[in-house]
Design a protein that fits this description.
There is one protein chain. The chain has four helices and eight strands, in the order αβαββββαβββα. It is an alpha+beta fold. It has one domain. It has a six-stranded antiparallel sheet. A hairpin with a 5-residue loop joins strand 2 (78-87) and strand 3. Helix 2 runs antiparallel to helix 4. The longest helix is centred in the first third of the chain and has 50 residues, at 2-51. The mean pLDDT is 88.
Length: 202
């Protein structure tokens, strides 16, 4: 009898602890949800402006799910997450900001790709990355600058100083070829999506 009472008591204590922990987690989530969402929006806005400095506004464009799925199938590990049209202060369209997520060495890398209506890659801007410190984490300073003002075309990755055509080739980060290829493959998916869906304002 005493054993039964002890079991019931312990079960009630465990239930109470679980309930309190659940309530506290719910409170923490509610308190932090809005600030986290705000910080994520700031990061995205900064990335958008980084690849289209001349834009005054960025308007959401409906994602062509079928086309996005086709790009994901063609470019392994890549997901096209969203598209915005960059417009100047008068409302004229300048081009598009395509947000991409690519599977890197450690985790997914999220970044924006800015492509003008004339078919030029303004550049890319990394929103989140968690690659190997000292290697893949150097993408910001090694890979990102290589995409500035390039014709929107298919890019390939080369390593060990084998760069022969800077217009279509991206030199890999030393010791981080996987990260380099992940970012480049995402840019290729964005360029393909632009060519097949967005080019000419379609």
């Amino acid at each position: 009898m005493n054993d039964t009472k002890a079991m019931i008591k312990n079960a009630l204590i465990l239930f109470a602890i679980t309930l309190v922990a659940g309530v506290l987690l719910g409170i923490v989530y509610q308190v932090t949800k809005d600030p986290i969402a705000y910080q994520e929006k700031l990061a995205q806005d900064k990335a958008n402006q980084s690849v289209f400095a001349s834009a005054g506004t960025f308007e959401d464009i409906s994602l062509d799910e079928a086309a996005a799925a086709a790009e994901a199938a063609e470019h392994t590990g890549v997901t096209i997450e969203s598209v915005k049209e960059a417009k100047d202060s008068s409302g004229a369209g300048l081009g598009y900001v395509i947000q991409v997520k690519s599977k890197g060495y450690g985790d997914f890398i999220t970044y924006t790709v800015g492509i003008t209506n004339e078919g030029s890659v303004n550049g890319i801007s990394i929103i989140s990355i968690a690659e190997t410190p000292g290697l893949g984490m150097n993408a910001e300073k090694v890979i990102v600058p290589q995409f500035v003002d390039k014709a929107a075309t298919a890019f390939s990755v080369v390593k060990n100083g084998q760069l022969s055509d800077a217009s279509t080739q991206i030199e890999a980060i030393s010791g981080a070829t996987i990260t380099s290829k992940a970012v480049t493959e995402g840019v290729n998916a964005a360029v393909s999506y632009f060519e097949n869906v967005l080019k000419g304002g379609n």
